[in-house]
Amino acid sequence: MTAPPPHRWVADPRIGWRILLTATLADPVAPDALAAPLAALCDTQGWAYEAPRLAGARDLLADSPVPLLVGVDGNDVVLSAHHSAVDGLGLLTVLDRLGLGPATSSARGTGPRTTTGGLARTVARRLAEVALRPPSGVVPPDRPVADHGDVLVSATLPGSHRTAELVHAAARAVVRHQEERGRPARHVAIAIGATRDPRPDAPPDHDEGRIEDRSVLLRLRDVERLDLDAIRAAIRTAPLQTPPAPAERRPWSPALDRATTAGLRLLGPRLGSTLLVSHLGEVTAPAVERLAFHPVTAGGTGLSLGAAGLGGRTVLTLRGRAATWNDDGLEQLLEAVISLL
User: Fold this and answer.
1) Superkingdom of this entry's organism (predicted)?
2) What are the start-end ranges of the E strands in the chain?
3) Distance, CA of 132 to CA of 11 (rounded, Å)
4) Per-residue pLDDT tens over the stretch 145-163
5) Segment holding 128, helix H or strand E
6) Is the pTM of this model over 0.85?
């Protein structure tokens, strides 16, 4: 059976909440070669098991509750994980457990920080933001791809690029994108995916540590007004966003969960952010030639910018909902981000 996540998972039910990591290897690998290590991993974690199959990234975006799906597409091994079970750095551990490691990241945890306060206070503040200073949107193209699913694009560029640089370039790209379409970009809000601690209480044999979602969210507002140094400072001091549900079950928890999910469904586009940015850091993975990370597309515009550094290059990705975006539109926005780095 699938083990329950270590915390309650209350989130926008319209979103599949699957994160993706695509590892390009020097040589093709057969799905059967990954079956045994995947089964062993799922058994250790208490996860439901589905055999690896021939599939690309878009094939593994279905709204599935299975914690981990693995696809093989030529030289690409695609990991699709439900975010309640695995975070971005956890996908690197999964890669290692499948026999494709070692795979480690330079990313550091956020360390001790204040939070945005209790649930009621956090919700009240965000509702006030919706009413008075809603986050900027991003005008999508005229012809979306489909009614459901996501659109994925990526590009490889030389060098290393830190999170602050990506946030700075992304905010300016949004401003440019909006201005070219005769729209203002006021109150650009950037959510930043991070981790509490990339190696929490790890035993000496770290490979035996449990994989789970240890992600946290930072959020910067009015980013279009900030220069790069101000963004760096804001990231260092931003409080952790309080999740939309208390950690412990209470007698009133089911009713609260229903109210929260209903509110997210109705207000998600305005409660969310202009863009989500999530960087896996500089990754060391000798068996891998390229890594592409696609974070989730929750809330706000449904746009997420992912990054992973490997071997002196950085792969940037953009992911958007197919109901509002097409490949050309996302590629143009990604090109704008790259041009402003």
Assistant:
1) Bacteria
2) 18-25, 53-54, 68-73, 76-82, 104-105, 150-158, 190-195, 215-220, 275-284, 288-294, 304-310, 313-321
3) 24
4) 777 789 999 999 999 999 9
5) helix 119-132
6) yes
- How far is Cα 155 from Cα 339, in angstroms, rounded to an integer? 12
Residue 206 half-sphere exposure toward CB, CA atoms < 13 A: 14
Q: What is the DSSP string of 272-340?
A: S-SEEEEEEEEEE-TTEEEEEEE----STT--EEEEEEETTEEEEEEEEETTT--HHHHHHHHHHHHHT
- Report the alpha-carbon distance of residue 151 to residue 58 in Å, rounded: 8
Hey, what domains does the chain have and what are their CATH numbers? 18-105 (3.30.559.10), 119-200+209-281+298-339 (3.30.559.30)
Write the CA distances from 58 to 30, 80, 128, 150, 319, integer angstroms: 19, 10, 37, 8, 11
Beta bridge partners of 151: 320
Compute the radius of gyration of the chain from its Cα atoms.
19
Closest CA to 65 of 3, 137, 139: 3
Taking phi over 0 as left and psi of -120 to 50 as alpha, with beta for the rest, 266 belongs to alpha
> In the chain, count of helices (H) and strands (E)?
7, 12
Mean of the pLDDT values across residues 231-256? 71
| pLDDT reading at 31 higher than 90 | yes
Closest of 312, 314, 310, 318 to residue 337, by C-alpha? 318
Q: Between 250 and 134, where is the model more confident? A: 134
Token pair belonging to 316: 């940037």
Angle, to 10 degrees, between the axis of helix 163-180 and the axis of helix 327-339? 120
The span from the CA of 54 to the CA of 133, in Å, is 46
- Cα distance between residue 326 and residue 197, in whole Å: 36
According to DSSP, the residues that pair with 150 across neighbouring strands are 321
> Taking Cα atoms as reference points, which of 341, 336, 299 lies closest to residue 320?
299
Find all residues with CB under 8 Å of 129, minimum gap 6, and list them. Answer: 135, 221
